[in-house]
Automatic annotation (TrEMBL):
Pfam families the UniProt entry points to: FKBP_C (PF00254)
Keyword set, alphabetical order: Isomerase, Rotamase
Stated name of the protein: peptidylprolyl isomerase
E.C. code: 5.2.1.8
Reaction catalysis annotation: [protein]-peptidylproline (omega=180) = [protein]-peptidylproline (omega=0)
A GO molecular-function descriptor: peptidyl-prolyl cis-trans isomerase activity
Transmembrane domains' residue ranges: none
Annotated organism of origin: Triticum aestivum
Length: 222
């Protein structure tokens, strides 16, 4: 609360003492302001905390993990600019399935292929606004990594765009992925994410689970 808003409610003498005592103190170093969503952050209309809360409730069940699990959390005040905005879309590699990706960093570890059990961190954005992320929370890496089996999206366990976007990455790598609507939330959309919306993913491949024998764990077919 501003000091000026308190002074009118005090007696003149008390207000004078308060103003002198305040001025005599060494001014504190101002703290940097936290990032917050502005009312005009979305071209579609005002964005509020309630907007993100309702979106998080729906994406908790549908979101990145279609069938639950993964430690995803909603970010209600993030308005960080998605890094792909600094990279020309012409620099992205386009796959036959419509996925576009750009490797910020190529990892030096094992390669994710169909059947690999992977752990990733991701940030999911629509029109530059974060609506889901695994990085929200405590811990050394910030948040709980999300785990899934590559190539398992047909079973409805993971968003197709994330599944296909991770395939081919190497452990330690970081990739920007542009996901077309048919590999994201499709014609129905989800909450405030409209039908036929293109979303963006910032994905970091943390690990590929190894078996006790030192080889990558694979899905048993059949």
């Amino acid at each position: 609360m501003e000091l000026s808003s308190l002074l009118p409610s005090l007696s003149p003498r008390r207000a004078l003492r308060l103003s002198f005592s305040t001025a005599s103190k060494t001014p504190r170093r101002p703290r940097p302001a936290a990032f917050a969503c502005r009312a005009d952050a979305s071209p579609e209309g005002p964005i509020t905390r309630r907007w993100f809360a309702s979106l998080a409730a729906a994406t908790a069940a549908v979101g990145i993990s279609v069938a639950g699990g993964g430690g995803a959390g909603a970010v209600s005040t993030s308005r960080r600019v998605f890094r792909s905005s600094k990279i020309p879309e012409s620099d992205f590699i386009t796959l036959p399935n419509g996925i576009k990706y750009y490797d910020i960093k190529v990892g030096g570890g094992a390669k994710a292929v169909k059947g690999s059990r992977v752990a990733v961190h991701y940030v999911a954005k629509w029109k530059g606004i974060t609506f889901m992320t695994s990085r929200q929370g405590l811990g050394v890496t910030g948040g709980t990594p999300y785990g899934f089996d590559v190539g398992n999206s047909e079973r409805g366990n993971v968003l197709k765009g994330l599944d296909l976007g991770v395939e081919g990455m190497k452990v330690g790598g970081q990739r920007l992925v542009i996901v077309p609507p048919e590999l994201a939330y499709g014609k129905k959309g989800v909450q405030e994410i409209p039908p036929n919306a293109t979303i963006e993913l910032d994905v970091e491949l943390l690990s590929i689970k190894q078996s006790p024998f030192g080889s990558p764990v694979k899905i048993v077919e059949g």
